[in-house]
Amino acid sequence: MPILNYTTKINAHKTVGEVQAILAKAGARSVSVDYDDDGMPVAVTFVIKIQENYVNFRLPSNWRGVAKSLDNDVDVPNRFKTDDQARRVAWRIIKDWVEAQMAIVNAQLAELAEVFLPYAVDGRTGMTLYQMFDDGRLLGAGRGVKANDD
User: Is residue 68 part of a domain?
Assistant: First the structure.
């Protein structure tokens, strides 16, 4: 079965604007967009006040992963296997995910910071918490660290 939103026609820039609006409505103090050299959005960064601290978050768009998924799916017609389509799909999926996270927060199942915690940016390294975890810098875990199977 093809990935979510694979047929979207909605421009990535429009979807990024929708993501910004959702985050602003949720209480983000600032929201901005990072662009690549071609002027295409690659990440949304935002600030949330947690207790008395302002914390930066970064939601990247791994559109190249989406492109691989589209390319590898025999059920996806070739007209949807382009870089532009992968960008559109990636941003639509991110928008849907952010909306789902807001539903969790609004239902009081979790705090706003809690749902975005993997995307919190460390001020010293510029890495997200997930990147630090994946690199083995948090909890002794990461791709280079083997689990103890005792």
Answer: yes
Q: Which domain holds residue 23?
A: 12-134
**Strands, DSSP E only, in the chain?**
30-35, 41-50, 53-60
Q: Is 120 helix (H, G, I), strand (E, B) or coil?
A: strand
Sheet-wide strand order for 53-60: 30-35, 41-50, 53-60
List the structure tokens of 29: 């103090």
Amino acid at 32: S
What are 17-48's pLDDT values in tens digits? 999 999 999 999 999 999 999 999 999 999 99
Three-state SS for 121-136 is: ECCCCCCEHHHHHHCC
Query: How many domains is the chain partitioned into structurally?
Result: 1
